[in-house]
C-alpha cells in the first residue's frame, strides 16, 4: 500500500491526463443539456445549465468545472452528465479520482436520461475511466434517488459496489398534501397559534404581504432585496453572504435571471408594509422545488420572519399543481425548517470504484475517511467555541 501511495504521489501525470481527457463544462451544448434536464430521471435544479455554468464561470472556489458526458450511440443525443473536478482540487489528495463539482446547492445527483438510465450511467463511468480516474466521489447525492440507483445497476454489471462515506437525513416537503392540514400535523395547534400571534405583531409595522417574483423583469429587483437582507444578518457578519464576494455575486446575478427566463427560479419575499423582512431563492426543476437560501432582517427577529416566510412558501408550493415535492437543501437537524417540513430523505457522500480489486481505491477511501473525521472534529470545535462565546457575559463597562 505504501508503494502504491508513493507511485501516485511521484507520478502526478495521471491527474494531468485525467484533466486533459475531461470535457470542459462550457463545451456541452446548452440545447442538448436543457433537453436532457427535461428528460432527467431525477430532478436536480443545481445542475441545470443556467445555474451550473454560472457557478463554474465565477463562483468562489467553484470555477472551471469539467464534465463526464454520455451520448446515445446512434443519435448522439446527450443522455447523461456529471460535472466534476479532480480529487486534488477538491480535497488536496494526490490520488487519481474525480469528484462531483459543487454547484453551490447541496445536491450533486447527476443528470441521467430516464429513457436510457443504465446506458447513460454506464457511459458516465466509462468516461471517468477514460479520464484516468480510479474512482468517482459523489458528494451530496440522494442515496435512494433514481440517479444513484442507475449508477448502482451499472456498477453491478462489473461486479462493483459503491461505498457510502457519510450520510444524513434532511427535510423535504410533500407538496401534494393540503397545506393547512400538513402544517397542523407538523407544528400542532399550539405552535401554529403562536406563529399567528407573531404575524399579528408583525402587522403592527404594516400589512404583511407575501410576494413571488417570477418574471425576468421583476426578479432582478427581488434578487437585490434578497442579497441585501442576507448580507445584513449573521452571514454578513461571518463574511459568507453572496454579495460580499465578487465572484459569488456575479454568479447569482447571472444564474437567477437566466433561470427565470425558463420559469425555473423564483424569489419569495415577506414584507411588513413596504419593508422586506425575509426573502428566499427557490429553484424549480420538473416537479420539484429547491429552497436555496434565506435572508432575514434581524431587526424583526422577534417575529420569526424566517419561519413566517417558510410557512408562506409551504402554502405556495402546496397550492401549485406542478410541484409534487420540495428539497430544503438544508443541513441535518436544521432547527428552523425541520419542524415544518417533516418529510426526510437520505443524502450522502459516495465513493464509486471504477475497477475491481483496485488497491488505489482503498487508498482513496482511507484518505477520504480521514479527511471527513478531521472536518467533523473541526466542526465540533467551532460549534463549542460559538456556544462558549454566546454563553460568555460581556465585560463590565
Q: Any key phrases for this structure?
A:
single chain; 397 residues; alpha+beta; Aminopeptidase; 2 domains; 13-stranded mixed β-sheet; 13 helices
Number of domains: 2
Secondary-structure element order, N to C: HHEHHEEHEEHEHEHEHHHEEEHEEH
Poorly predicted sequence stretches spanning 5 or more consecutive residues: 1-20
Q: Say which CATH homologous superfamily of the largest domain is assigned.
A: Gcn5-related N-acetyltransferase (GNAT)
> What is the CA-based Rg, rounded?
22 Å
The CATH architecture designation of the largest domain is 3-Layer(aba) Sandwich
Number of strands: 13
Under CATH, the topology of the largest domain can be stated as Aminopeptidase
**Which descriptor suits the 3D outline?**
globular
> What is the percent of helical residues?
40-55%
Strand content: 15-25%
Describe this structure in words.
This protein is α+β, with helices and mostly antiparallel strands. It has two domains: 2-171 and 346-388, 3-Layer(aba) Sandwich (Aminopeptidase); 176-323, Aminopeptidase, CATH 3.40.630. It has 13 helices and 13 strands. A hairpin with a 6-residue loop joins strand 2 (66-71) and strand 3 (78-86). Residues 1-20 have low confidence and may be disordered.
